[in-house]
Design brief:
mainly alpha; 6% strand; Arc Repressor Mutant, subunit A; transcription regulation; single chain
Length: 179
């Protein structure tokens, strides 16, 4: 079995698998190239040719995870960006404003922790250093912040998500001080 056979046999399935999980075509092509490189570099390790499809899918899944991890570590969000995600629809903009209002109403220590991780892109270890906390203390503070945001958001909004975590349906339950 060689890389050309695998490419011809699995290329379209791989493209469909990746594009369902990666938002834009350029990123999908980048992930696909990385998957093909990993397949080529590890092709000699495959022992059971009957499990090639599952092996390829596992490589693709791991590469998609690596793709999102690398983006999370390098992307910085400015406090003035109203969108939740690139290409966000109007309801995402409304939710984004609501979330910013919720964050603004958190106790100061939780507000600071969530802003440092979410908007400034700091790791929880960096947050710990900046705030003079242990790493587990910073992690706990960020998790509590997220839990508070989720609780407040679910009080005022009904949300439905797709399997990628994107909001596909949004309804306000009523007027609140956040939304």
């Amino acid at each position: 079995m060689d890389i050309n056979f695998i490419y011809q046999e699995y290329q379209e399935d791989l493209r469909r698998f990746i594009i369902k999980r990666v938002a834009n075509r350029e990123d999908m092509e980048d992930v696909l190239q990385e998957v093909l490189i990993k397949i080529q570099n590890n092709l000699a390790t495959i022992k059971d040719e009957g499990k090639v499809a599952a092996w390829i899918r596992r490589i693709a899944r791991n590469q998609i995870i690596d793709f999102y991890r690398s983006r999370r570590a390098t992307e910085r969000l400015d406090d003035n960006i109203p969108d939740v995600a690139d290409g966000a629809e109007n309801h995402n903009k409304e939710i984004s404003i609501c979330i910013r209002n919720i964050i603004g109403n958190l106790p100061a220590k939780y507000q600071e922790a969530i802003k440092l991780t979410t908007y400034q892109g700091l790791s929880q270890q960096q947050v710990a250093q900046r705030l003079g906390l242990s790493t587990s203390g910073a992690k706990s503070r960020v998790q509590r912040s997220r839990a508070m945001i989720k609780k407040m958001l679910l009080r005022c909004c009904q949300l439905e998500f797709d399997r990628m975590g994107n909001i596909i349906e949004y309804r306000q339950k009523g007027k609140t001080k956040y939304c």
